[in-house]
Write a structure and sequence with these properties.
The structure is a single chain. The chain is α+β, with helices and mostly antiparallel strands. The chain is 15% helix and 34% strand. A hairpin with a 2-residue loop joins strand 5 and strand 6. The radius of gyration is 14 Å and the shape is elongated. The mean pLDDT is 85. Strands 1, 2, 3, 4, 5 and 6 form a 6-stranded antiparallel sheet that branches.
Length: 99
């Protein structure tokens, strides 16, 4: 299975209070940094972990199962944005192979 990463970044530099003026963009990248999916989130003034997970699902992806032991839903802070390992949604629904 190829490694995929979701990266959610603001479309503008944050104000002093942390508010983002022009929303966020969520991209799913493969290991070669090719963009596989893009979701624009123009109304977001801050990052919303749970909503980002739902938007990933709408695009056909899911947070990688089994990596969230911290309760942070798999997202980690990365500079001004957030990132998480993801899989294609159909791979998340399949049980692991015993081979």
């Amino acid at each position: 299975m190829s490694e995929l990463t979701a990266v959610c970044t603001p479309n503008s530099y944050p104000h002093e209070d942390g508010r983002i003026e022009h929303g966020y963009q969520l991209n799913v990248l493969d290991q070669d940094l090719t963009v596989l999916a893009t979701v624009d989130l123009p109304d977001w003034e801050s990052f919303h972990q749970e909503a980002a997970g739902h938007r990933l699902a709408d695009a056909g992806f899911a947070l990688q199962p089994g990596l969230d032991s911290s309760g942070a839903e798999g997202w980690t802070s990365a500079g001004l944005g957030y990132m998480a390992p993801v899989v294609r949604a159909e791979a998340a629904e399949r049980p692991p192979s015993s081979n």
